[in-house]
Structure formats: structure tokens, C-alpha cells
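hey so u asked for the seq, here:
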Amino acid sequence: MTDTPPNMPQLLSEAKRWFDDALLAGMTAAGEQPVTAAQAAVFATLDPDGTSISELARRMGVTRQTTHQAVHSLIGMGLLEQTPDPASARSRIVRFTPAGARAHERAQVMLAGIEAVLAERIGPEAGMLRDVLTRPWGEPPLLTAGF
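ran it, C-alpha cells below
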């Protein structure tokens, strides 16, 4: 059996897991309520003025049911709330509660610290990595088997 080097999606997934693990451990150590990766994804994709569950699901790349479960568990924890959408009488939006906004701000500060640790460990490439990942990639290509 040959050892195949990991492909790019695997490497990106491992990098995300490294950040998630560091953030969740740091938040728990700071006294914040522990959250799952799915709950953290809701926080990462929620607009400051609120977002609908269907839009959160689209951004996270998961089903509305999965998003609904994560949102309602965070509502139960007192970190999010649902309110009527001022733009649509039939829709509701999800927003941070004051406790949720405080936790989100703490997480943003902690993520900056985690990035700083990464920069110390791998050097200036950390800044180049951020630069490359924020560039527009365009639409995903459609390749055929014999490209």
C-alpha cells in the first residue's frame, strides 16, 4: 500500500478542524458555554442584524433541518433569539442575544489570537495563506474525466 499525500480538500478540512478545536477549547476555558461545531458555524455565518434560517443553511451548506436544530439549541442556551423579519411578515430572522453577542465578540478576539499563534509557528506564510484564501476563486470548474 502506498501512502498518498492528502489532497487539498483534506488539508483545508484539517486546517479548519485545527482552528475549530483551538477556538472551542479556548472558549470553554474562558467560561463560555460549550458549543458544537454546527452551533459555531451558525455564529460564524450570522449577520449582525440577523439572518433567516434558510440563508444560514445555504451559507453553511447544510439542510434547513440541521440549521434549525443548531439554532434552536442556541436559543435554548440564551445565545440567539428569533424575531419577526421587518422585510417579510411571513419570515423570521435569527439574531444574537446580548449574551450571544458577547460570546461572538470573545470568539473573534480569540480567533485573531489563534491566527497569531499560527503565524508564530509557520512564519509569514500565514499572512500569504489568508491572502490566497480571500481572493476570488470564481465558479467551481466543471472538468471531464480526460481534462
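The two ends are 27 Å apart (CA to CA). The first strand starts at residue 80 and ends at 85.
lmk if thats what u needed
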